[in-house]
Amino acid sequence: MTVSADPKELLELATRLAAEAGRVLVEERPRDLGVASTKSSPTDIVTVMDQRTEKLIVEGILAARPDDGILGEEGANLEGTSGVRWVIDPIDGTVNYLYEIPAWCVSIGVEIDGETVAGVVEIPALGETFTALRGHGAWRNGEPIRAYSAQSEGKPVPLERALVATGFGYAAQRRAVQGALVAELLPRVRDIRRAGSAAIDLCSVACGRVDGYFERGTNPWDIAAGALIVEEAGGKVGGLRGAAASVAMTVAAAPGLFEALCGFLEVREADQDS
Ligand code: IPD
Ligand code: CA
User: Fold this and answer.
1) Which of 150, 159, 196, 229 is a plausible cystine mate for 132, CB 3.0–4.6 Å?
2) Which of these, 254, 224, 216, lies nearest to 86 by C-alpha position?
3) Which residues on adjacent β-strands are paired with residue 237?
4) Is the shortest distance between the CB of 197 and ligand 1 below 6 Å?
5) How crowded is the C-beta side of 123, counted as CA atoms within 13 Å?
6) At what angle are helices 48-64 and 7-27 packed, to 10 degrees?
7) Residue 101 — φ and ψ, nearest 5°?
8) How high is the pLDDT of residue 3?
């Protein structure tokens, strides 16, 4: 357990490493970038750049803070002894990165004793850096952000006027269930967006670029930074029936819409398969 770690300094290190990884991903992307390997399904891909930037971030953390724990999507898994743990997705939105669609990012969340205290989502192709520090707020490129869209006028958006982001897993069976759920939601909302990066979806909630977001199957590295950014922007993040956000379900929205979205999902037991 640690009390000596300063969340502000952790955020500074996270922001520096995310920016460096983002620069490498843009400037040193191989012309012939292809799929290096696959994970949970043939469409769940890893490129050499995912691996290279996770290594870069891990080495940067350990050079500055050798006793910290690390969890990274591409395999980094260090227990650590300091009470600080870094939760890393070197590229969230790898399919977008492969296809040169701008919606991909580097996501780094930092926990002290299991609680996320700092987070950064770096979106190089959009020129956006989202950051948050627990208890102090959330920012886009240094400007404070709020989880309300311009259309909401600071009031809860009813579900039928909400622009809702979502994502799909990589397993075909999971996708069939997710597709059926979206078919039910689509006539009940303003519209649906599927950007292709859970971390960016959360940042979009945090700055009012969408009204809400939900997804089943998110991993800790997809949501560690983004969930703090939403909460520090005044939004809510959680699972269904009062549960914490988890692989079973992650929902994010401003208060009011959050409850309405959870209600829709709870009735349909959307946090369970079949
Ligand atoms: C994926 C993206 C996608 C979401 C998937 C994630 P990856 O992460 O965040 O938007 O729908 O659930 O696995 O594979 O690009 O790091
Ligand atoms: Ca990833």
Assistant:
1) 229
2) 224
3) 252
4) yes
5) 26
6) 150
7) -90, 135
8) 47
- The burial class, CB within 10 Å (0-12 / 13-18 / 19+), for 240 is buried
Looking only at the bridges linking them, the beta strands covering 191-193 and 163-166 are: parallel
pLDDT in tens, 184-223: 999 999 999 999 999 999 999 999 999 999 999 999 999 9
The span from the CA of 140 to the CA of 82, in Å, is 29
Ligand 1 and 89: CB distance under 6 A: yes
Whether 1 has a pLDDT exceeding 60, the answer reads no
- Tokens representing residue 246 in the block: 């988890």
How many other C-beta atoms are found inside a 10 Å radius of the C-beta of residue 82? 16
Q: What is the mean pLDDT of residues 238-260?
A: 97
User: Model-level pTM?
Assistant: 0.96
pLDDT at 274: 66
162 near 189, Cβ under 8 Å? yes
- Phi/psi of residue 253, nearest 5 degrees: -175, 170
Q: Return all residues near 42 (Cβ < 8 A) that are at least 6 apart.
A: none
Atom of ligand 1 nearest to the CA of 199: 9
What letter would DSSP give residue 50?
A: H
Say if ligand 1 is within 6 A of residue 168 CB: yes
Express each pLDDT in 42-59 by its tens digit.
877 788 999 999 999 999
User: Do residues 46 and 35 touch, judged by C-beta distance below 8 A?
Assistant: yes
CA–CA separation, 216 and 32 (whole Å): 33
Dihedral sign (CA 244, 245, 246, 247): positive
Q: How many angstroms separate the first and last alpha carbons of the chain?
A: 41
- Give the CA count within 13 Å in the CB-facing half-sphere of 247: 6
Separation of CA 50 and ligand 2 centre (Å): 7
